[in-house]
Amino acid sequence: MRIKNTLVNLVYIWGSALLLLGLNLLTRRIFLDVLVVDYLGYDGLFSSIFSFLTLSEMGIAGIITYHMYSEIATNNTQQIRKLLYIYKMVYKIVGGFVLVAGIVACFFLPYILKEQMAGEDRLFIYTIYFLQLFATICTYFLAYRRILFVTHQKIYFCTMVDTVMSIAATLLKIFVLLKFQSYIGYLLVSIANNVISNLIIAWWSRKKYPEIARVKITKADIKELDLWHDVKNMMATKVAITIYGSSSDIIITAMLGVRMDGLVSNYGLISAKIQEFILSIFKALQASIGNLVYDDEEKKGIKFFKALDLVGFYMGLTAATGIVIVGQDFILWWLKKTEFQLPVSFLIVLSVNIFIAICNNPMNYFRNTFGHFGGDRNYMIAAAIVNIIISLMLTPLVGVTGVMIGTVVGHLLIYLGRTVVVYKYYIKEKPYGYYLKFLLRLIFLGVTVAIAGEISSLFYLEFLLGDILVKGIISVIISSLVFFVFNFRSEEFRTLMLYAKTIVEMILKKRRSRQ
User: Fold this and answer.
1) Quick one: which of 221, 207, 205, 174 has its CA closest to 64?
2) DSSP-derived 3-state class of residue 1
3) Most Cβ neighbours (<10 Å): which of 69, 332, 376, 498?
4) DSSP symbol at 372
5) What are the coiled-coil residue ranges (predicted)?
6) Angular region, 75: left φ>0, alpha ψ -120 to 50, beta rest
7) What φ, ψ does residue 250 adopt, rounded to 5°?
8) 57 SS3 class
């Protein structure tokens, strides 16, 4: 049943990711044709500011999700009701806080956007700021019931709703851009999409899970859940991750200007979509991981983890190599202007960050499933501090590449922390062997990029899209060969092949039953 649910989730998520990727690329192209790139910088900056404001959530959402996995595994409906009510209550409190804090934060915008706020754009900037603030608040008041679909392995329903609504919203955005050339209209469509999607999911969750009705809780119930112990540990992690993830836009805007932040967002969109597509595998497996951890299938779970870790390495290797080989050409084909290209050095460091992110995800999902939120707290804090220090030191010297170097170093520290927790509490081994393995994987990445780059240089097509496709295929082939040569004898690879065989047999059996 786990494999079946995972496959269903994966089909919906992948189908959605591919469709929305094409629409997002088209929308961004039209956006930059009719509006200025600075607007993308505003979007990134304000999103980062609101990420800081949502620290008031203190990581409680992640803690409650972790608790819900164990309650669903034992079918404890009453406890699930209590957890959902707390989740809802926390989100409403956070939404109210973000509203107030967002109003206060707007007074600091002139210190970050000095040139823009001094001119005629002042009213326009405040308008789009408050529209994005409203969109953020709506999420906290409406989105809490999604947790039921996630923890019950039914995330494909949320994906389906989000996909349909996103398609409609994207088409409407394109119309608004072409007809009215209005960024405010563009934001209003995004807000409507967010509100309607969450309302539909909330309505269906009440029909799908009627037993999870409203329940009143007391202080004794909250005390019994013992959430405060986890919150204390999670809060430091939450602060650190927020600083780590949201400081780059603010640093780039303050030191290099809002236009540079807009240019970075184009590369960020490509990076995010690649990761979204690849990491959807791990997202589809999240509830299965939770069930494995809490079903006392420890040996089976460890084997599954190691096989999944190998999948993360292969996908990270392929994605990072592809980014280096075709990234600059893709930007030129997509946006049609060389002025939208950033230095190759930035692209190389970005590819390393993508590699770390994808390799880290199996570790990340297992770590989030069984708690122990204080285990990697110090690593998270170190990642945030190191990221900011390196970014501030290197940006005046090497520009935007310096910010990305800070991001990569911080990301490595987060990865180390995740590994410590998983190996200590789940694998029950010292992680030093895994650290050596990851160092070798970084070397394999460098070798793969060098070989793929050398072979790609032998091919050149005047038709740019054809050139991109040829180089992309070469990067996939070389990545696959390097991966296979260095892993085909490992136990993890054999386990992975057994899972692949099971999936293929399941698909063939289902196909034969339909005939």
Assistant:
1) 221
2) coil
3) 376
4) -
5) none
6) left
7) -70, -45
8) helix
Look up residue 208 and give its two tokens.
Answer: 């799908």
For residue 95, the Cα-to-chain-centroid distance in whole angstroms is 22
Please give the Cα distance from 50 to 40 (Å, whole number): 16
Q: Give the whole-angstrom CA distance, residue 186 versus residue 383.
A: 35
Give the burial class of 440: count Cβ atoms within 10 A of its Cβ; 0-12 exposed, 13-18 middle, 19 or more buried: exposed
Burial class of residue 492 in the structure, from the number of CB atoms within 10 Å of its CB (0-12 exposed, 13-18 middle, 19+ buried):
middle
Which amino acid, 480? S
| CA-wise closest residue to 264 among 450, 35, 44, 28 | 44
* DSSP of 301-368: HHHHHHHHHHHHHHHHHHHHHHHHHHHHHHHHHHH--GGGPPPHHHHHHHHHHHHHHHHHHHHHHHHH
Q: Which two tokens stand for residue 192?
A: 């409507």
Cα–Cα–Cα angle for 71, 75, 81, nearest 5°? 65
> From residue 175, how far is each of 23, 182, 316 by CA, in Å?
13, 10, 36
Provide the token pair at 46: 């304000």
- Record the tokens describing residue 297, joined without a space: 């299938």
CA distance 474 to 325: 9
The structure tokens listed for 340 are: 């939208």
Report which of 136, 160, 134 is spatially closest to residue 146, judged by C-alpha positions. 160
Nearest residue to 245 via CA among 419, 41, 363, 388? 388
Whether 34 and 181 have beta carbons less than 8 Å apart is answered as yes
* pLDDT by residue, tens only, the chain of 515 residues: 555 555 565 666 667 777 778 888 999 999 999 998 989 999 888 888 887 766 545 556 666 766 776 677 677 777 777 777 777 777 787 788 888 889 998 988 888 887 777 665 788 899 999 999 988 888 777 766 777 776 666 777 787 888 889 889 999 999 999 999 999 999 999 889 988 998 898 888 888 877 666 667 777 776 776 666 666 666 666 667 777 777 898 899 989 999 999 999 999 989 988 887 777 666 655 555 555 555 555 566 788 888 889 989 999 999 999 999 999 999 999 999 999 999 999 999 999 999 999 998 888 877 766 656 667 878 888 998 999 999 999 999 999 999 999 999 999 998 998 899 888 887 888 999 999 999 999 999 999 999 999 999 988 787 899 999 999 999 999 999 999 998 988 888 888 888 777 766 666 666 666 65
Q: Which two tokens stand for residue 276?
A: 């979204």
Task: Tell me which residue has tokens 């204080």.
Answer: 374
Which residue ranges make up each domain of the chain?
233-515
Distance of alpha carbon 269 from alpha carbon 208, whole angstroms: 34
User: Both tokens of residue 419?
Assistant: 């590994």
Tokens of 207: 């029909």
Q: Which residue has the tokens 């870790």?
A: 309
Rg (CA), the chain: 23
Are 365 and 420 within 8 A, CB to CB?
A: no
